[in-house]
Amino acid sequence: MTTDTDWKLTRTFTSTSGDVRWDRLGEPGRPPVVLLHGTPFSSYVWRAVARSLMRDHEVFVWDMPGYGTSEKAEGQDVSLAAQGRVFTELLDHWGLAEPLVVAHDFGGAVALRGHLLHGAPYRALALVDPVALAPWGSPFFRLVGEHADVFERLPTALHAALVREYVTSASGPGLRPAVLERLVEPWLDGSGQAAFYRQIAQADQRYTDEIQGRYGDIGIPTLVCWGEDDTWIPVAKGRELAGLVPGARFEPIAGAGHLVQEDAPAELTAALIAFLQQL
């Protein structure tokens, strides 16, 4: 995995929610870092950060069930509850006792659930524009969730246009065409179209409501990074979240929207490296 075009996950783990594609970068034995993507994305968004962190860490990347190159199947459970369970299964499969965990968007909720509900021990936690505080979900997101069966039957061209527009809105300055196409590609074939609406239909706020009152129990070093131009989840939510986690540091990222990894990869990587070096 050396360029944008050849980013491929070469390993497979069979989880309770289907086959999960994953990979590792860097030399074994170095401090482990696990990267969690959000929705509707995949591990691809972490490519620049992963390649920087691998100089001093062993970096684990994966596509959640129902996302990217992992299995997408009718009736598949891709809820936050399922993803949190799968994450703990993966940590056990990898033999990681206390990894450094870096999580974006929906992946932030997965990491929080893994730690607070499943007892997964982390060395430290970095959250990047995470889904963590109610209320969340844009009007579009809620509309699709309520009528997923209707949207699933959209003509292919209309579905593709909708997905491209939606993914584009996650970026502040805008995405390069090649990057946009790579991000939407998993959602454009038959199984991908159904999977796109399935993951929205199962995105229930009750899964973060279950843990929101426990953020004060987090006792590990925590960093909260946030794109200042995030239109999906306002930066004020980042400050609020950092205030709820004891000792958490808040790091705003100027010029970045919700998809910070694409909008400001150098700035985000610098913040993460500085955080990890202080541990």
From TrEMBL:
The keyword Hydrolase applies. InterPro entries: AB_hydrolase_1, AB_hydrolase_fold, Carboxylesterase_BioH, Epox_hydrolase-like. Pfam families: Abhydrolase_1. It comes from the Bacteria. Residues 31-265 form the AB hydrolase-1 domain. GO terms for molecular function: hydrolase activity. This is Alpha/beta hydrolase. It comes from Streptomyces ferrugineus.
